[in-house]
Amino acid sequence: MLEMVKGANVGLGALSEDVGSVVLSLSWCSAMADGDADVSVLLLDADGKVRSDADFFFYNNPTAADGSVQLLGKVPTANGSEDRISLDLSAMAAEVERVVVAASRYGSARFGDLDDLRVTIADRTGEALLGFSIADAGSESAFIFGELYRRAGEWKFRAVGQGYETGLAGLATDFGIDVDDDPEEADAEESRQLVAGAGSTPSAMVGEDPAAESAVTVPTQLVAPEAAAEKKRRPRTAKKKVTLPKTLRKSLAESDTWRQARLFPASTLKNDGEREMRATSVLLSVMAQVPEFGRRLTAAFGAPAGRMETFTEVSLPHGDTPKRPDGVIRVERAGKLWTALVETKTNGNPLKAEQVQDYVDIAARRGYEAVITLTNDVELEGRPLVDVKIDKRRKNKVTLWHLSWAEVAHQAQMLIRHEGVSNAAHAWLLHELLHYLQHENSGCHGFQNMGPAWVPVRRGIEEETLCQGDQRAVAVVESWERLVRQVCLRLGGELGQKVLPVQRAKRGTDPQTRRATLADGFCENGRLNAELRIDGTPGIMTIVADLCTGKLRMSIEVPAPEQGYPLTWAKRLIRQLAEAPADLHVETLVESQGVGPRATLERLRPEPADILPKDGSPVAGFRLTLVKGMGSTRGNAESGFIRSVDDAVDRFYAHVVVHLERRQTRRPQLVEAAIA
Questions:
Q1: Given CB 3.0 to 4.6 Å as the disulfide criterion, which of 266, 524, 545, 597 pairs with 528?
Q2: Which residues face 177 on adjacent strands?
Q3: How far apart are the C-alpha atoms of 629 and 553, rounded to whole Å?
Q4: Phi (first) and psi of residue 137, to 5 degrees
């Protein structure tokens, strides 16, 4: 991989032959694990300005209509998080001369508070081509990491590393966009315009009652400054996107025993073979029919934006015996085909290494680009589910990718519940897919098994016979990490927010080394720990599974406000927790002393002052903790430990976290500036 310095540039064609589609990764970390930023992409013409509102991509506008740009979201890394962007350079409009890749922070947050700021570019096969690290970040709240630009018909990359103390507004203004960062004004204006347009807004679904109009998601609108005043007085004309209503209509069934007809019935499935065949066909057919969904699942694998067709049970020659992959995905763009073979497993069945190896060999021989595996397992960084050999000497490079059924369900839920799709029929198709995946008989429930090491390790913890260095403990730590990743996917899909596991490790730590260190700590204290960062919440949610006591501890730390008095803070916190469980533990965090007074919420409701230090020590914040019994089932399946973790997370979020004051919502109002 080529390491670049600030101001340097390089032609992508000199680094790889597969740069028609590339993935940029922006990464960072922070010592407190609470640092984050949001990526943005701007498409510029020859004048260095955006052509229109459609050329600015950020969290409210993540995908280009032609598929040339797609923000893929965040993934956890060993010591932070990584935000990925898919760029289909072959689909980029001819008028686009530059693609600026940036990130921004909000409020008082600055990039100088983050460590290891870095951008990398990988080609279609996932091979890293170049990297650029930024070491001089300071008080800037927005940063241009780099830019891609055309020169003599070739795409080149320039390492920029330019910061803006004026934040997203200052950065965007340079490229012809005006940003109003006042969230209250933006929200007020959005409400005024939605109310103004309510009379002409169609229902989200055909035949739906008028109350379901709230299911129509209207993206932020960009208007010229001279038309802004007029725009405030008329309904929005932005293309509306369809999501499903939050509340279901009253059923017309005569009896509760009547079952609604389903497009994809699952109740009659009898064995693993039927489940696998049905799940593959259902998924691939919906991918082909709902462009937003198909593109969402394949963009990260280097697939171009184009017409997609999917096939099942295709027979392909391989020696004396033809092979039949579970599915094939083909995408056509500009007369060129991108092809991926698909191998699926359901009901917790593992992948077979020799089977996947055969498909990789077939793909390489036939000039296909990828092999995609799809199982209940969540793949971990540095820990592939199967080991296969990929011959890099071949001119045609084949990439092996993995999806979990939990990731598929997460993407479907994000589209139909939060982000929206182009029409009601597509929303209904995704709803039927999601219903099928969540059906108890589909076999697509995600990670559900802690593995064969779980029971003997749990017994070893109880008997105090588990020793450091035991590889069974490492296996349990890996299963725990998979479970936490799946909890994040499920919770994020339900909330429509980014939910990521926090990884605390020293820079450059190998994932296997990190897990071995965690396993040694687990052998010593019998506790599995995890931290979740949920966008919009005031702190990090902590999960502790104590196998010695059989208890699950859920907690969150709420920092003290910058202004006011401790007694006022305590009273406000107790009021916010009016509907929280009475057995919630509240403890005060005291500066330089650690933990101060603690008590249950039941005791503090009549006397909030009891939580304050008697000696007047400075209060840094409060920690809220809820304790729940661990699953009593001794097996390794979902009915025991895994289900108890899911229940504990849901209960803590719904009864505690949801009532806390939220962080400032990041929904800037965008206004297109006049171009001289």
A1: 545
A2: 672
A3: 9
A4: -70, 140
Rounded Cα–Cα distance for residues 503 and 35 (Å): 12
What is the β-pairing status of strands 370-375 and 128-134? unpaired
- 541, pLDDT greater than 90: yes
The amino acid at residue 1 is M
Give 63-121 as a DSSP string: B-TTSSEEEEEEEEETTEEEEEEEEEGGGS-TT--EEEEEEE--TT--GGG-EEEEEEE
- Across the chain, how many H-helices and E-strands are there? 14, 28
- pTM of the entire predicted model: 0.80
Which residue type does 525 have?
A: N
Distance CA 389, CA 435 (A): 37
Of 7-21, 474-488, 515-529, the range with the lowest mean pLDDT is 7-21
Helix, strand, or coil here: 380? Answer: strand
Residue 431 has pLDDT above 90, yes or no: yes
Alpha-carbon gap, residue 248 to 550, rounded angstroms? 38
Measured CA to CA in angstroms, residue 658 lies from 539, 542, 627 at distances of 12, 15, 17
∠472-476-480 over CA atoms, to 5°?
170
Mean pLDDT of 298-307: 87
Residue 62's nearest CA partner among 74, 52, 51, 70 is 70
pLDDT of 285 above 60:
yes
How large is the average pLDDT for residues 139-162?
91
- Chain CA centroid to CA 399, Å: 22
Query: At residue 205, does pLDDT exceed 50?
Result: no
pLDDT band for position 81 (50/70/90)?
confident
Three-state secondary structure call for residue 137:
coil
Distance CA 604, CA 448 (A): 39
Count of Cβ atoms closer than 10 Å to residue 174 Cβ: 15
**Dihedral pair phi/psi, residue 498, rounded to 5°:** -75, 125
Distance (Å, whole) CA 526 – CA 277:
41
For the segment 215-231, what is each residue's pLDDT rounded down to a tens digit?
333 333 333 333 333 33
Q: What is the pLDDT of residue 179?
A: 61
Average pLDDT across the chain, whole number: 82
Buried b (16+ CB within 10 A) or exposed e, 71-99: bbbbbbbbbbbbbbbbbbbbbbeeebbbb
What is the spatial distance between Cα 76 and Cα 25, in angstroms, rounded to a whole number?
Answer: 12
Tokens of 370: 């990828």
